[in-house]
Amino acid sequence: MPTLSDTAHGDAATVAEIVAGLLAPQAHTSPKYLYDSLGSRLFEAICELPEYYPTRTEAAIFARHGADIAGRIGVGATLIDLGAGNCAKAASLFPLLRPKQYVPIDISREFLNEAVSRLRQRFPDIAMTALALDLSGPFVLPAEVAARRRVFFYPGSSIGNFAPHEAIAFLRRVRENATADGGLLIGVDLIKDAAVLDAAYDDAIGVTAAFNLNMLRHLNHLIGSDFDVRQWRHVAFFHAEESRIEMHLEARTALTVRWPGGERHFARGERIHTEDSYKYTRDSFADLLAQAGFMADDVWTDAAGWFAVMHARAASA
Q1: What is the pLDDT of residues 110-137, one digit of tens each?
Q2: Mind giving me the DSSP string for 225-292?
Q3: Pairing outcome for strands 150-154 and 244-251
Q4: 3-state class of 74 per DSSP?
Q5: Which of 6, 136, 141, 288 could form an SS bridge with 145, CB 3.0 to 4.6 Å?
């Protein structure tokens, strides 16, 4: 069983944020803590699952409408990949977009650097500037990121991890870093049958469960806690009233989790809320973009209307 560690590897702000979430009446964590190096690899595996439709559906949209998307954006832009992960989605568009500079951003520094190292070998003519940043708070792009024609790329419906008011705040921060001649290319998961959604976030072989449970390992590393993964189970479901998938970790038995300077008792069945994934209609997301300072000017979907890729330009101030 894991034992209490006197050493917390997270910085003081990270430890404080995690501990505050664990001690809240409804315990919760930020979904960013799902993505340590192993978590990032597990998410790659999730994207290969038959139940997880967003990745393949979005890829089909890019394959079918790539030329139109490239025509809308134009070649030679500064392509800024938000939450880049393994950079594969952006790389698949390089032949069409031919960016002058590629700027992948991800919270997992080690995973990002490995991905960019491989990508530089494949595309030596594209300047690449990898940035390990936490995008959940204010951020300013450094001077080495070209200011001309900044196109922000946010695929995979990651925007759904934010509550709508948080999504607006996040997109406003993106807008602050955008240029008048820039824009946003974003993937949006659309509302559909709840059974399809439930299966996508609770697959038959348990990869998503492993992804969610791995966060407890990560928390042990960051705050020196003694979570025992075997004492928890993965729970995911669609909350129709809130139009969101919810992911939780549920205590299998009554237990106490300890960390240096604190502890929390969990009753059997008590949950830690780890992630949300909000679903939208085309119109509701276009309205959200407008509130953030962007104007949606094109949208591409699959035939079933399960997923959308939207392009928006930076609206005039």
Answers
A1: 889 999 999 999 999 999 999 998 888 8
A2: ----GGGEEEEEEEEGGGTEEEEEEEESS-EEEEETTEEEEE-TT-EEEEEEEE-B-HHHHHHHHHHH
A3: unpaired
A4: coil
A5: 141
